[in-house]
Amino acid sequence: MNTNIILAAGLGVLLLGLGRLRRRLQLSRAKHRSLAGHARIGRWFSSLVPYYEYSDREFFCADDAPPEIESQRRAAFHRLAGLYARQFARTAALTAEVQPEIADLQFTSRYRVPFQFSRLVRQNFNAGAFVASSAGPMTTDLDGNRRYDLTGSYGVNVMGYDFYKDCIDGGVALVRELGPVLGAYHPVTAYNVHRLRTLSGLDEVSFHMSGTEAVMQAVRLARYHTRRRYLVRFCGAYHGWWGDVQPGVGNPTAARDTFTLRDMDDATLRVLRTRSDIACVLVNPLQALHPNSGAPSDSMLVDSGRQARFDRAAYAHWLKRLREVCTERHIVLIFDEVFVGFRLAPGGAQEYFDVRADMVTYGKTVAGGLPIGVVCGRRDLMRRFREDRPADVCFARGTFNAHPYVMGAMHEFLHRLELPETQRRYADLDATWDRRAAELNARLEADDLNVRVANLSTIWTVTYPRPGRYNWMLQYYLRAHGLALSWVGTGRIIFSLDYTEADFAEVADRFVSAARQMQADGWWWTSPALTNKSIRRRVLGEMLRAWRGRPASDRLVRPAADEVALGNKA
Ligand SMILES: Cc1ncc(COP(=O)(O)O)c(C=O)c1O
């Protein structure tokens, strides 16, 4: 009798163990094989990467280019540095003055190019961090340089800066009588709620102060209502800087309740279908441009491995399958439309891909140019308390939530969105921007330039077909040619919908001229021995040597041992 009980218990434990193992394996299979797909290993690895930098010589021939190419690049670097010193003198001077006191600036200026090259670049190419004015698609810096704005203000600028100036002015006029009274709502808020409900097709709305907060709240509500622990996000997707949605590099603590799974992959659906502890799936539809890869930044342009290609039908199909599984398993499907909302279509990604979510977050553009985060959701998911358990609440507050000035500018934005002239901007949107991208690519290809563009409507990224170590230099040529880029450089280019054919033709001319100059200056020199793999292997070797305290070669130096600067010192 006793033996039977022991045997049965043993069998039970074994089955339980096997079940756990199966779930573990299933989860492992659903992880992308990159470091981004393995948040913990990625964080651990990043903490080991040692700092080192290239010597003056290595800087110009990190690809083993012959001496004539090295001197060609060196001369070009001097010339461009001189041009920056003249062109951006006042803007760069003020930037240098405040940079030691602004942590954000110190960070962004450091991560514009791969770190081995960063110091010399920082010292020589400083276009500055200040702008004085904007008009149409252009901004003007403190030196009077007018540049086409390709930054899109991190995605806020969908309609063109003048549109937002009007929204803010109109909004202030609407709410001035009330001023900054918080807690109670200005009446324009009622209109905003009504419009957001219509646009999202969802029942209720909550207001927050940033996209990050909106995402936090949506996930918190999903956990509260499902009573489940895990959040699923996709490899590479950005959802703000809150810990749970940023489980890898950049977050000092481990996110224990997050699974980072493969985008557009059956293995992920299997995990969703079989586990019963997943509260929600978070989707950033921008990933359709580069599934499973992080936001492309030029600081990661170690080689030419950056890839992007948008397939609308394939991504829509994926979202539909995801929708089915989430419905079947009672998992809350959250579309994070902080970036793409109102950019792809008035009804956002839900309309564009024809898939409905249970909750949607908006931000960036929706408050007419002022700071905002919004959650729209199904009524049963938005409730923050239980009728039958009065002490069991889901808490969320925020001092500045629904600030009257923000609500005023949002009113103007949502009202103007309805106007026929605004609606016309969406007509043929994709056809227009796909054609523009194709035309630019045809010109780049005809000139045999090592650069192409890929786009999801007005959101573009730049790729580099042939292996190279200096692709990150293009951002400095582009700026010198009057194109304003954000700190991630050529990784993310964002157009506003007010770009006319003439504006775009001018941008394309400047882009091609910049790339031609880069080519003529020898930065895209290549040899059959140079492959993306050989570059990565070489850099890894350098890191290992630097880690062991040795220079990778006699051409490599430790920090601060080589203070040779070219041109101007910013
Ligand atoms: C998809 C997405 N979600 C959330 C955020 C965070 O928004 P915020 O910067 O307003 O906190 C961003 C910001 O870029 C985003 O692109």
Describe this structure in words.
The model is unreliable at 554-570 (pLDDT under 50). This protein is of the alpha/beta class and 570 residues long. The protein is 45% helix and 11% strand. The protein folds into 2 domains: 25-54 and 192-289 and 311-385, Type I PLP-dependent aspartate aminotransferase-like (Major domain) (Aspartate Aminotransferase, domain 2, 3-Layer(aba) Sandwich), CATH 3.40.640.10; 55-158 and 431-557, Aspartate Aminotransferase, domain 1, CATH 3.90.1150.10. It has 20 helices and 16 strands. Helix 8 (161-175) crosses helix 15 (404-418), helix 9 packs across helix 15 (404-418) and helix 18 (474-480) crosses helix 19 (501-520). It has a 7-stranded mixed β-sheet, sandwiched between helices. A 4-stranded mixed β-sheet has the order 2-3-4-14. Strands 12-13-15 form a 3-stranded antiparallel β-sheet.
SS field, number of helical segments:
20
Q: Please give the radius of gyration in angstroms.
A: 26 Å
CATH class of the largest domain: Alpha Beta
Number of strands: 16
CATH-scheme architecture of the largest domain: Alpha-Beta Complex
CATH topology-level name of the largest domain: Aspartate Aminotransferase, domain 1
Key words describing this protein structure:
seven-stranded mixed sheet, Aspartate Aminotransferase, domain 2, four-stranded mixed sheet, about 575 residues, globular, alpha/beta, about 10% strand, disordered C terminus, binds pyridoxal-5'-phosphate, Aspartate Aminotransferase, domain 1
